Amino acid sequence: MSEVELENVYESWIGREEVHTARIEAGAVRAMAATLDLDAAPTPGEALPPGWQWLFFNPAVRRSGLGADGHPQRGGFLPPIALPRRMWAGSRIRYLQSVPVDASATRTSRILKVEKKAGKRGTLWFVTVGHVTSCDGLPCIEEEQDIVYREAAPPGGANAAAPAVYEAQAQWRRDCRADSTLLFRYSALTFNGHRIHYDETYARDEEGYPGLVVHGPLTATLLQQFAVEHGGGRRLARFDFRGVSPLFVDRAFSLEGRAAAEGGLDLWARGAQGELAMSATAVFA
Which domains does the chain have, with CATH numbers? Predict the structure, then answer.
């Protein structure tokens, strides 16, 4: 199939929709609180914390329907892009109203855009998916999620060159370290089979990483928690984030932030070598 024909096939996925309904189970919420080492979990009827919506609506694909990377095989809801590496590149999230713990919720997902780009290490394909999470027919969370597909890692590893040090100055900082148990629990809670998070041999030999990779949405969840802690009691209304470089198991990283215009916050995660791992902005109601 020619490159033009492939592009036409991929772009034909634009507009596809799927709908999932789930109960925002209190047991899963308690397990997430324990995973994040929190003192208490929200109880039934209380608001689901920002980022915790990613525990729900995840596809339960049979093991025989998984690809070599542990993700569902291509060509279902998402287009059958042939590039071997894929990751969650970032999101733009609007929190319109609370999703109560133990409520029944529905998420409607739609392919919004499929776009080819040229990267430093070859071809990239970006798929943008829109999600709307509703309770009792009312939209509660709107999100645009960017998924990037990349070519195989070059010989010598994915991070052979030393990363640039991020120079931004923070008002607040929290030091963190993700161990393999945290990654295992988060993978289990989100039903995420991607092997870079638990199979060190695969992460190193197949995808070129130096170790297990911290989940991007886990880092984004921690940054949202950090934003709420520095939001002066206000409700988080908007959170946008972009993954820049991966974080790795058992390597120190930090959550950092500072006040921004109109009462918002600029936030970021900084890796063990001072590099920018994730950038984000938070806006409050």
Answer: 3-284 (3.10.129.10)
